[in-house]
Amino acid sequence: MLDRADNSFVLPPEIDRRRTFAIISHPDAGKTTLTEKFLLYGGAIQMAGQVRAKGEARRTRSDFMQMEKDRGISVSASAMSFEFKDFWFNLVDTPGHSDFSEDTYRTLTAVDAAVMVIDGAKGVESQTRKLFEVCRLRDMPILTFCNKMDRESRETFDIIDEIQENLAIDVCPASWPIGVGREFLGCYDLLNDRLELMDRADRNVIAESVEINGLDDPKLAEHVPADLLEKFLEEVEMARELLPEFDHQAFLDGTLTPIWFGSAINSFGVQELMEGIGKFGPKPQVCPSDVRPISPDESKVSGFVFKVQANMDPKHRDRIAFVRLCAGHFKRGMKLTHVRSKKVMAIASPMLFLASDRELAEEAWAGDIIGIPNHGQLRIGDALTEGEILRFAGIPSFAPELLQSVRATDPMKAKHLDKALTQFAEEGAAKLFKPMIGAGWIVGVVGALQFEVLASRIELEYGIPVRFEQTQFTSARWLTGPKENVDKFIDGNKGHMATDHDGDPVYMTRLQWDIDRVERDFPELNLTDVKTVMV
Ligand code: G4P
């Protein structure tokens, strides 16, 4: 979505101060804890523990499903907005489990930057690497937070080397840790020449900060024991020789990441990271569309749906479409054109997500994420504008890796199952295929856990117990080409054909050999594993 080459536009102050980002990490690295501390510093919650209700709820309140809590995974993404100093932060929560990578991908299309959290003892873990690769596809700027420095962790240089080598990105230290594990004292803020000391006694207060006049300042010795100071000074000298300096453009281009060291649970290093997000940005970026790049300072409002979530509140059967505003100043009650249907929608109850609460959004600006309640009109990828017919660069939909048929254990409920499945397909929670021959549905997902999540949601939200079963197919590919050829192919291969929930034809098979054969024998047709959802 981003065109970082063109940063020349001057933004209205309200847009200029917006920072829209996501946190990416491997489970357990500390994403929830860091989110909680962001909200704490942002004044969105009063005390740590509100997001993570101790003992009872393991994850942030954005994870509303019991199953997520039970399993300790975060399946659904949501947004949180809060102010920090002069900035307005929109933090979009990414699902933490690798099975939900498509959802994560979509989430990342709605942000301008990512904070990568790594565990100081574990370094770059598998899930971090995967998510990083997704960010890299879009050259997204990344800020790194090395967490859990209060525990025994790796040598600072080892951590930095691992990131550089493993992720092929330059790393510039924004702070440098002094001591490690039990001896961890705090960090030296290399960008602001400050010594930040950690207060282990109170995890919710802002730690002490000492103004220092450079590394020769004798005040350093007053706070840091001689042996630690010596090691620290040596390391910083080496770091300055060996590691790149901070280069703002390289950061914006996604080729260099600044790294902060800290301990989220001790609220340590979090503020400096937030200041970094504020200072380095990026501010809301240009969104490409099929007509022209949409600059955030355009006066007309436009945005796109990157996520649809149904039944957020079991008491209200509502659907929330999460919209990233790309341009303009949105006001409640505005009439926006839903480009796909060409219908005008009055946006009467837009929502902002403040920590765990939703609030009516009286206004919002480019960069913001708003929630629009609707009855199913809004789908992932849909554009909303003040009348202009344009499409934002599509959000891709990936072919599922696992296929299973689904049926209601109570045949009387089969009809309601159609409705539930269609809704989950529109929400992007699964791919839904209707075979051209025979009855029933085939559901496609990326990871096996999604079947369980779906079964549980269908039962919970619709009261329909279901069973997933093996099918004869293992692969699905979208079929495109000249209409005449497509129709002819469908006629001759009905047993392999299905339609997805948009009605587009899909070829299904068990054998890669079949796919190769179709590609060889029908050169005018395409079988693709990615479909770009266009509006
Ligand atoms: P996640 O969302 O990335 O999965 O991680 P989460 O924040 O849930 O943190 C995972 C575990 O790591 C939690 O411990 C959390 O308290 C701990 N943790 C987070 N930040 C730090 C830190 O800076 N230092 C240390 N030492 N630990 C940290 P838990 O035992 O799983 O949960 P809980 O009993 O603390 O709630």
UniProtKB/TrEMBL annotation:
<dbReference type="InterPro" id="IPR032090">
    <property type="entry name" value="RF3_C"/>
</dbReference>
<dbReference type="InterPro" id="IPR004548">
    <property type="entry name" value="PrfC"/>
</dbReference>
<dbReference type="InterPro" id="IPR041732">
    <property type="entry name" value="RF3_GTP-bd"/>
</dbReference>
<dbReference type="GO" id="GO:0003924">
    <property type="term" value="F:GTPase activity"/>
</dbReference>
<dbReference type="GO" id="GO:0006449">
    <property type="term" value="P:regulation of translational termination"/>
</dbReference>
<feature type="binding site">
    <location>
        <begin position="147"/>
        <end position="150"/>
    </location>
    <ligand>
        <name>GTP</name>
    </ligand>
</feature>
<dbReference type="InterPro" id="IPR031157">
    <property type="entry name" value="G_TR_CS"/>
</dbReference>
<dbReference type="InterPro" id="IPR038467">
    <property type="entry name" value="RF3_dom_3_sf"/>
</dbReference>
<dbReference type="GO" id="GO:0005525">
    <property type="term" value="F:GTP binding"/>
</dbReference>
<dbReference type="GO" id="GO:0016150">
    <property type="term" value="F:translation release factor activity, codon nonspecific"/>
</dbReference>
<comment type="similarity">
    <text>Belongs to the TRAFAC class translation factor GTPase superfamily. Classic translation factor GTPase family. PrfC subfamily.</text>
</comment>
<feature type="domain" description="Tr-type G">
    <location>
        <begin position="16"/>
        <end position="285"/>
    </location>
</feature>
<dbReference type="Pfam" id="PF00009">
    <property type="entry name" value="GTP_EFTU"/>
</dbReference>
<dbReference type="InterPro" id="IPR000795">
    <property type="entry name" value="T_Tr_GTP-bd_dom"/>
</dbReference>
<dbReference type="Pfam" id="PF22042">
    <property type="entry name" value="EF-G_D2"/>
</dbReference>
<dbReference type="GO" id="GO:0005829">
    <property type="term" value="C:cytosol"/>
</dbReference>
<dbReference type="InterPro" id="IPR035647">
    <property type="entry name" value="EFG_III/V"/>
</dbReference>
<feature type="binding site">
    <location>
        <begin position="25"/>
        <end position="32"/>
    </location>
    <ligand>
        <name>GTP</name>
    </ligand>
</feature>
<dbReference type="Pfam" id="PF16658">
    <property type="entry name" value="RF3_C"/>
</dbReference>
<keyword id="KW-0547">Nucleotide-binding</keyword>
<dbReference type="InterPro" id="IPR005225">
    <property type="entry name" value="Small_GTP-bd"/>
</dbReference>
<dbReference type="GO" id="GO:0016149">
    <property type="term" value="F:translation release factor activity, codon specific"/>
</dbReference>
<comment type="function">
    <text>Increases the formation of ribosomal termination complexes and stimulates activities of RF-1 and RF-2. It binds guanine nucleotides and has strong preference for UGA stop codons. It may interact directly with the ribosome. The stimulation of RF-1 and RF-2 is significantly reduced by GTP and GDP, but not by GMP.</text>
</comment>
<dbReference type="InterPro" id="IPR027417">
    <property type="entry name" value="P-loop_NTPase"/>
</dbReference>
<keyword id="KW-0963">Cytoplasm</keyword>
<keyword id="KW-0342">GTP-binding</keyword>
<dbReference type="InterPro" id="IPR009000">
    <property type="entry name" value="Transl_B-barrel_sf"/>
</dbReference>
<protein>
    <recommendedName>
        <fullName>Peptide chain release factor 3</fullName>
    </recommendedName>
</protein>
<feature type="binding site">
    <location>
        <begin position="93"/>
        <end position="97"/>
    </location>
    <ligand>
        <name>GTP</name>
    </ligand>
</feature>
<dbReference type="GO" id="GO:0097216">
    <property type="term" value="F:guanosine tetraphosphate binding"/>
</dbReference>
<dbReference type="InterPro" id="IPR053905">
    <property type="entry name" value="EF-G-like_DII"/>
</dbReference>
<keyword id="KW-0648">Protein biosynthesis</keyword>
